[in-house]
Amino acid sequence: MPFKSLALSLAILFILQGCSQENKQEASLQISHEDFLVLDAHLDTPIILDRPGFDISSRHDPMHDYAQIDLPRMREGGLDGGFWVIYTPQGDLTPQGYEDALAHAWHRNSVIDKMLIDHADNFMPATTADDAAAIVAQGKHVVYKSIENAYPLGLDVMRLDAFYEAGVRMVGLVHMTNNQFADSSTDPDGLKWNGLSPLGKDLIRRANALGMIIDMSHAHDLALAQAIDLSTTPIILSHSGAGHLYEHPRNVGDALLLDLAASGGVMHINSLSAYLKDLETDPARRPALSALFKQLQENPLKTEAEAEAFLEARRAIDKKYPPDFATFDDVMRHIYHAHALMGAAHIGIGLDWDGGGGVDGLQDITGLPKITQAMREAGLSDEDIAALWSGNLLRVLRLVEASRALSHEMP
Ligand SMILES: [Zn+2]
């Protein structure tokens, strides 16, 4: 898609020339959604890449097998790629727990690598900020790697180095409950560390030295504030929302978002319905789904028949206790609020595909062009839209690359 880079260069030219409002509108007509470099900061698809029978090169139905990303729809929705997540569920903070989690994380990494090998014509690994445009120029999709939940590192932050070597360029410290590094925003037992633990601070210093983006989505506000203060590079939230619009612990309030922006950070907006607004779902739905996923965690799917039985059980829960989804407009409200509060240089997209994201009107990536259209109608310039779709994320990646270079220069 060399046209994409041409269109981007044209856009940059317009911007550099300090064009008039009229010219801006002309330029905006020239850049279609397809021609933006579109990256999502948090793709949970590796969770299902090794599901028996799952094929990323064929088209799936998000309402039938719950898969929200595949190659045909990446093309249709203009999604160029993003950060593909090595997610590990939180377990016990014990030597055995750490060991099992580490094996799990390496397995998830190998699942991403297998996709890169099996579909080398369509996907390419990316590790530097410059890689994204170069890969897209070859007509391929961009695969950065990130970690969601650093729990597998155990008590040794130097274990992060091997993940860096494997191509990981982003590390999220914590998930739904507190771990050895940080307090979670959603731990039912409340605070354990009052933010970051001493080991969590070491982990941030190690990520800074290695050249990895630090992702504080899921972290408690205290941990986020401390990470903003401590990190030498801007913090990102790879999939979060605005607490001003909906007071949920997973969302972040205005004061902290302004601190994030002041330090150069970026919040990527997610589309997980329960974080966007109050939902009216049958209270029995959540325990039913939790039980099913617990079962899945304990007995990973080994055959296509088992995978089909799992999906059938999930569909049965949906039928019995129908989901209540937030809407496309709810997602846009969070984007607009973050934009109005922090400015276009501090917002991005991390819709939590295959990790719980999806709302009415945006159940998979085929709806992404609607976001571009809505932002344009709301008066955002092409420059702002390009920043949201990838410019801000890549700016932070460039800064962590510089941080690595600096730390390697030191004696
Ligand atoms: Zn998450």
UniProtKB/TrEMBL annotation:
Pfam family, one: Peptidase_M19
GO annotation, biological process: proteolysis
SUPFAM superfamilies, A to Z: Metallo-dependent hydrolases (SSF51556)
GO function term, MF aspect, one: metallodipeptidase activity
InterPro entries xref list: Metal_Hydrolase (IPR032466), Pept_M19 (IPR008257)
Domain of life: Bacteria
Protein name as it appears in the record: Domain containing protein
Classification lineage: Bacteria, Pseudomonadati, Pseudomonadota, Alphaproteobacteria, PS1 clade
